[in-house]
Amino acid sequence: MHEMGIALQIVQIAAASIPVEMKGAKVLGVKIKVGKLAAVVPDSLRFCFEIVTQETPLSEARLEIEEIPVVARCKHCHSSWEIKEPAFACPSCGSGSIEILSGRELDIDSIEIEEPEHLNHSGNV
Amino acid sequence: MEIKVVRKVLDVNERMAQQNREYFTKQGIYVLNIMSSPGSGKTTLLEKTLARISSEIKSAVIVGDICTTNDADRLAKTGVSVVQVNTDEFGGDCHLAAHVIEKAAGQLDLKGIDLLFVENVGNLVCPAEFDIGENAKVVVISVTEGEDKPLKYPLMFRVCDAAVLNKIDLLPYLDYERNAVLENIKKVHPGMPVFEISATKGIGFEPWIKWLRNQVNRKKAPR
Ligand SMILES: Nc1nc2c(ncn2[C@@H]2O[C@H](COP(=O)(O)OP(=O)(O)OP(=O)(O)O)[C@@H](O)[C@H]2O)c(=O)[nH]1
Ligand SMILES: [Mg+2]
Ligand SMILES: [Zn+2]
């Protein structure tokens, strides 16, 4: 439900990550990691991203979403496993004292920007 | 060409939340973030809780809503200082973010306050993702919602430190499987305390208030 705000943050961070010497370059892609536990629906995020990127250096950017599985480790017996259903006790020893190793990510990994020579042809915005 | 960024999308919020946490800690204020679906009874729970504890634990409230000041008006009647945040000023957000809390805290007289309640916007999804600088999070669910709420909103139940099962006065009139909801909470967050309460009828407050008192005192202790 807050995918619009998330999309805006992504645009802000991506635009700020264009190196100064490449000011005006177009962002062609944004790679993000979204944990399966994160309160974000990839499809609505894509939809919002389309809207908020209009008239920004990201207007042609595609959003690549890597979904990260939920992995936990038992603090008691130290086994680790992937959580596929909402059940968070250790399947080996039954302990409820666990640590979530991954699955809550909401990270921008990288951006793809157009090559500098390209930039010379298209000119600065 | 690829440029590595490697940043959390919400890192601005997380930094702000950390600042809030340090600020509140310095003032010796324990902050509790209360979340639920719309209408589960957050405001009623707060009204009744404040009536019981405010002479003993000095409290204040920040209440978030998309619009209207109804909840703040109800809470102000308990005599504690209350500030209402309408998120429509901030784009109609479905959650309170850390910068909103910072602003709201600035409008409260926090001198001598031990406990700051934050009533979040009614929503079980988004508020789970936004740290506001609180010390603990509580989720309220009521027996008029499905028993499977914890399974449908696992993140919320994972990030919370306690749950309140509210409106238990209605149990005799419903086909609600109380054990099923307790089982589901346990599946998602084994060991999390659950307080079974009727906010309107004033049932089940003892253990909840005891828990609150412990939380507040634990924070005060090291000082
Ligand atoms: N029967 C019963 N009704 C309750 C109880 N607690 C709250 N209610 C009723 O539920 C309705 C919603 O209560 P609120 O306290 O306003 O709920 P809220 O979670 O603050 O609602 P929002 O802030 O709008 O999300 C009101 O009509 C309350 O009187 C309870 O323990 N039992
Ligand atoms: Mg309310
Ligand atoms: Zn184990």
Provide structural commentary.
The complex is a heterodimer of chains A (125) and B (223). Chain A has a domain of 82 residues: hypothetical protein PF0899 fold, CATH 3.30.2320.50. Chain A is built from three helices and six strands. In chain A, strands 2-1-6 form a three-stranded mixed β-sheet, with helices on one face. In chain A, a hairpin with a 5-residue loop joins strand 3 and strand 4. Chain B is α/β, with parallel strands linked by helices and 223 residues long. In chain B, strands 4-3-5-2-6-7-8 form a seven-stranded parallel β-sheet, with helices on both faces. The longest helix of chain B is centred in the N-terminal third of the chain and has 16 residues. The N and C termini of chain B lie far apart (53 Å). The mean pLDDT of chain B is 93. Chains A and B meet through helix 1 and strand 6 of A and strand 1, helix 6 and helix 7 of B. Strand 6 of chain A pairs antiparallel with strand 1 of chain B, so a sheet runs across the interface. Bound molecules: guanosine-5'-triphosphate, magnesium ion and zinc ion. Guanosine-5'-triphosphate binds next to helix 2 of chain B.
Mean pLDDT of chain A: 91
Uncertain spans of chain B: none
Number of helices, counting only DSSP H or I runs of 4 residues or more of chain A: 3
> In order across it, which strands form the biggest sheet of chain A?
2-1-6
The helix content of chain B, as a percent range, equals 25-40%
CATH fold-level name of the domain at 3-69 and 103-117 in chain A? hypothetical protein PF0899 fold
Main sheet of chain B, how many strands, which sense, barrel? 7 strands, parallel
What overall geometry of chain A do the principal axes of the alpha carbons give? elongated
Q: Report on the biggest sheet of chain A.
A: 3 strands, mixed
Shape of chain B: globular
Q: Regarding CATH, which class of the domain at 3-69 and 103-117 in chain A?
A: Alpha Beta
Which CATH-level-2 architecture of the domain at 3-69 and 103-117 in chain A? 2-Layer Sandwich
Rg from Cα of chain A: 19 Å
Parts with pLDDT < 50 across at least 5 consecutive residues of chain A: none
Please give the radius of gyration of chain B in angstroms: 17 Å
Determine the CATH topology of chain B: Rossmann fold
